[in-house]
Amino acid sequence: MERQQGRLVEVAGSETLWPAELVLLALGFTGPVAGVLESFGVDTDARGNALAGSDAEGGYATSVPGVFAAGDMRRGQSLVVWAIREGRQAARAVDRFLMGHSDLPR
Hints:
- By secondary structure, the protein is mostly helical.
- It has a single domain (23-99), classed as FAD/NAD(P)-binding domain (3-Layer(bba) Sandwich).
- It has three helices and two strands.
- It has a two-stranded antiparallel ribbon with strand order 1-2.
- β1 and β2 (7-9) form a beta hairpin.
- The radius of gyration is 15 Å and the shape is globular.
- The N and C termini lie far apart (34 Å).
- The model has no long low-confidence stretch (mean pLDDT 85).
């Protein structure tokens, strides 16, 4: 991606595949890029954000098992303190998903 006239646009031919078992995207932007959510098959809300709750049980999980969303991706542009809080809570949800339990604070 590159910024052109204030907008992010794809750069043709710049795609790269990196093998990974876990991917965490921390981008800090005004909302999700539709193509990212579509490529994972994640359900969205009416505003185009990733559809994921914030409950203690199953929180931040999207409609795709093993895919979690927090911060701007889940709630849209917001205060950084919300993104930090949601990032910590999402980390706990991911830990529970991977380990079956978590000792991280909520």
